[in-house]
Design brief:
403 residues; mainly beta; Immunoglobulin-like; Jelly Rolls; 3 domains; seven-stranded mixed β-sheet; five-stranded antiparallel β-sheet; 3 helices; 26 strands; rod-shaped
Length: 403
């Protein structure tokens, strides 16, 4: 009996094994006797925001059979083929998807092997593409309002800007150089000033700022338009070596050995400059600068021993001409400005404070309301002095637009 049970049990196991073999092969009728193979997946799939494009990045699958990848978007209505140029996971495959609209996209990346097998799709969602709408809200980096630039005797120009936004990548500055060529320099976000050695003064300087919309963005986006920098005026001192006295009828003559050319001998500390007799007001004197110049200002140094007193000018006019009449009339002259000398302390004559002495020693600057038309000849008409009926002055300088 025991042997019969063993025989029946063995027979049952045999039937079950045969049945399993049959069912194990049943799937082949649906695969046409071919086994499904899924190519390896890409690794670390990521994106970088771009301007009217998206940039997708991934580390390739180590599967050596992968032939290419397909990137799908817009509900699989659009696609782009990407060749599998490497199978090393340490490399990166970078793909640019161009000609996109400003929108948020979803992409699917699928790998294909050389036998046509297809991987499971890998989705990359919320990929933002930037365009004109984003650019419209960008603003150019602000320049420093108080003093946006400085110029130097050597012709160098320095521009000053405020600190930028954290996503600023730089500010492009477009200008014309002295050879009439258009040039561009970039102010980096970590710098607040930039020096331009060859700017052609009198021309326009423009700038625009660039930004990345996201920290790892693929593209820099610039503001929609260039902005014009405030007008840049390069001021230099007129060359005194060209100055000559210009004696006209009705102008005051020299007195006490203090001759007119002393006014441009460069000596601001000597107590000997130009002095007239006591002829009463107004008193005028003239000079030839040797060349036509667009003037911006003049500077006077008072007689050292009589600051804010005696014959130092208190109120005066400056006139200019390119063809002064020889008879000394004023018809051929144009008034450039009227100025008043103001004593800083307001103390009575003969009493000077430290600020009075410091101001006078530095020379007092009188600026025209705007650069003048080019003139060659200057005529000063003193309407009032601090005390007396004569004029004395230690030194003068004239400032003009530089080239």
């Amino acid at each position: 009996m025991k042997h019969l049970i063993y025989i029946l049990l063995a027979f049952s196991l045999l039937i079950a094994w045969v049945g399993c073999e049959k069912y194990a092969d049943d799937y082949k009728q649906y695969l046409d006797d071919k086994e499904i193979t899924y190519p390896g997946l890409a690794r670390d799939v990521r994106s970088q925001a771009g301007y009217l494009r998206a940039v997708l990045v991934w580390n390739p699958s180590p599967d050596p059979n992968i032939d290419h990848y397909m990137v799908y978007w817009n509900n699989n209505n659009n696609s782009q083929r990407v060749e599998a140029t490497t199978h090393s996971p340490s490399d990166s495959i970078v793909v640019s998807i161009p000609n996109l609209e400003e929108y948020v996209y979803s992409f699917t990346i699928v790998a294909y092997d050389s036998e046509g097998n297809v991987s499971v799709g890998q989705e990359l969602n919320n990929v933002r593409v930037y365009g004109e709408t984003y650019r419209a809200v960008l603003q150019n980096r602000a320049y420093r309002l108080s003093d946006p630039y400085e110029t130097y005797e050597d012709g160098f120009l320095k521009l000053f800007f405020n600190a930028p936004d954290t996503l600023n990548t730089g500010t492009q500055i477009k200008y014309t150089n002295r050879d009439e060529q258009e040039k561009m320099v970039v102010l980096l976000p970590g710098d607040n000033d930039i020096t331009i050695p060859d700017f052609k003064f009198g021309t326009t300087l423009q700038y625009r700022s660039g930004y990345v919309p996201e920290p790892n963005a693929a593209d820099t986006l610039y503001t929609l338009s260039w902005e014009t920098f405030p007008a840049i005026v390069h001021i230099v001192e007129a060359d005194k070596s060209l100055f000559q006295p210009w004696y006209l009828p009705n102008d005051a003559g020299d007195a006490w050995g203090w001759v007119l050319p002393n006014l441009w001998n460069g000596n601001t500390t000597s107590d000997q400059g130009f002095h007239t007799d006591g002829i009463g007001m107004p008193i005028s004197f003239s000079l030839d600068m040797g060349a036509e110049s667009a003037l911006t200002s003049v500077r006077f140094w008072q007689r050292y021993s009589a600051r804010y007193n005696d014959g130092n000018p208190k109120q005066f006019e400056v006139w200019g001409s390119n063809d002064p009449a020889s008879d000394g009339s004023w018809d051929s002259w144009t008034k450039l400005g009227t100025f008043t000398n103001v004593k800083p302390s307001g103390l009575p004559g003969g009493q000077n404070s430290d600020i009075d002495n410091t101001t006078a020693a530095a020379g007092e600057l009188y600026e025209f309301s705007e650069p003048t038309a080019p003139v060659r000849y200057l005529r000063f008409r003193v309407l009032e002095v601090w005390n007396g009926d004569y004029l004395h002055l230690s030194q003068l300088s004239v400032y003009k637009l530089g080239e």
